[in-house]
Structures are given as structure tokens and as C-alpha cells.
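TICKET: design request
STATUS: open
ATTACHED STRUCTURE:
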């Protein structure tokens, strides 16, 4: 996604604007024994009514969550970029 590698933004720990390193947030693997996973697996298996995927309109990009790490105090915070981010343009020759 098109996001700068480091940005100047406010750090709540330092209480001033400092340079932050930007890393994209990646979703972790779900727990197998959580109630949501068990409920979903039970629905797929067939003990409840049918589970059909809902048709959603295609999005033009996704709202990207980023982890900002302060270069001064090394504390990290989350930030969600408001607009939808575009993918990098690849030039094929």
C-alpha cells in the first residue's frame, strides 16, 4: 500500500511531535477455541440454519491500520488512515 515509511506526528508519551516509523498492521491467526470460531464452525457443520455469504459491493481499497513507533522513546501506537489506500503501481516491460 502507498504509505510513507516515516512521518512526523504527535507522541503522547513524549508529549511532542516526533518522527515515527510506520509499519502496516497484520491480523494475527484466530484462536481455535474462541466462542466466535466455535459458533462459526458449528454453523458450517449444519447444526443451525444455512450460512451463505452475503454479496458486498467491491471496495476500491481498504482503510489501512498502521503501527507508529516513536523514534525517540520507542513507544508504539495505532493509527487508521482515513481514506482508502491504493496499491503500488507495477510497471511491466
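STATUS: resolved
RESOLUTION: sequence designed for all positions
ATTACHED SEQUENCE:
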Amino acid at each position: 500500500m502507498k504509505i510513507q515509511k516515516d512521518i512526523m506526528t504527535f507522541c503522547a508519551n513524549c508529549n511532542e511531535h516526533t518522527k515515527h516509523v510506520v509499519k502496516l498492521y497484520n491480523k494475527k491467526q484466530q484462536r481455535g477455541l474462541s466462542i466466535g470460531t466455535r459458533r462459526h464452525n458449528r454453523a458450517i457443520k449444519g447444526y443451525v440454519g444455512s450460512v451463505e455469504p452475503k454479496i458486498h459491493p467491491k471496495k476500491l481499497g481498504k482503510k489501512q491500520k498502521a503501527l507508529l513507533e516513536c523514534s525517540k522513546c520507542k513507544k508504539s501506537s495505532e493509527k487508521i488512515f482515513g481514506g482508502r489506500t491504493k496499491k503500488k503501481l507495477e510497471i511491466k516491460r
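CLOSING REMARK: The two ends are 21 Å apart (CA to CA). The CA atoms of residues 39 and 48 lie 10 Å apart.
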